[in-house]
Design brief:
By secondary structure, the chain is mostly helical. About 40% of the residues lie in helices and about 10% in strands. A three-stranded antiparallel beta sheet has the order 1-3-2, covered by helices on one side. A hairpin with a 2-residue loop joins strand 2 and strand 3. The protein starts with 9 loop residues before the first strand and ends with a helix.
Amino acid sequence: MLQRNEAEQEIVSRDKRDRRDFEQISNLAKRMGLFCEMYGKVMVASKVPLPNYRPALDDKRPQREVVIPLGLQRRVEGLLQEHIDRMQLSSGKQSEPMPEGRIITPEDHADPDDNPDFLLDSSVMEKVLQRRSLRLRKYAKSLAGIT
């Protein structure tokens, strides 16, 4: 069946009898030039070599969702924006903050190794602090508008 159908690559079976008779099925599949593996309670026969582990077929795989606290997410966004601001200021670019969802390209970054004292320049630090202060004021106004 699997060898006759060109479009089908593998057969997945959750049948208890197939698990019980896996050794015999595996030997038969190998003689036919197929690959056979057992993943937990699932047996797979395939035309292509199979990996040792397939998370999609693992019934014991942890099914959890990772939730990042809102405060931590905002802190990370702030630090990332601060880094972007520093890179833009050190490269001489004066532009608006990055819009949400914009992908950062290598052209957006300046190499801080080119000028190791770029953070020591008081005018650069003043501009970074001004932008941070403006961003914090906007954030505080948005929180005041919520409550």
